[in-house]
Amino acid sequence: MSLSDVISTALGQIQHIAKTETVVGEPIVAGGVTLIPVSRISIGFAAGEAGKNEKNNGAGTGGGITVTPIAFLSVSDGRVHVHAITPSDPILNKLVSLAPDAVRKLTEIFGKKDHDKSKE
User: What average pLDDT does the segment 91-105 reach?
Assistant: First the structure.
């Protein structure tokens, strides 16, 4: 595989990972509130090739992507609020990473209560 093939493959994978949906996350709906996570993406990439001829050469790539939550939007009663997350606040970063599961569980709980009330 030539260096250009290796680079094309790696960049294609990076493009797939670093899509818009990664920066602006999937909306999470709980009751009358919609939360939308917003993240910063940092990408590092390197490629190289070595060898004297086509039989004795090597090519390689390396890279990494970091996704950091920086804010979330809350939409309620037709109003949008931006809630920034400071990088020095690890507790808030942890809460944002746990938010989708917590919101899903709360939605299930409230959904069951609404479902039970409709049976009465």
Answer: 67
Q: By C-alpha distance, which of 73, 69, 74 is closest to 94?
A: 69
From CA 84, how far away is CA 76, in angstroms rounded? 17
Token couple for 117 = 């009330």
Going 21 to 24 to 25 to 27, the CA torsion angle's sign is: negative
Q: Is 41 helix (H, G, I), strand (E, B) or coil?
A: strand
DSSP 8-class letter at 96: H
Residue 12's pLDDT is: 78
Residue 48 token pair: 């190289």
Question: With 70 as the cut, is the pLDDT of residue 93 above it?
Answer: no
Which of helix, strand or coil describes residue 108? Answer: helix
pLDDT bin (cut points 50, 70, 90) of residue 26 is confident
CB-facing half-sphere around the CA of 79: CA atoms within 13 A: 3
Amino acid at 53: N
φ, ψ (nearest 5 deg) of residue 43: -125, 135
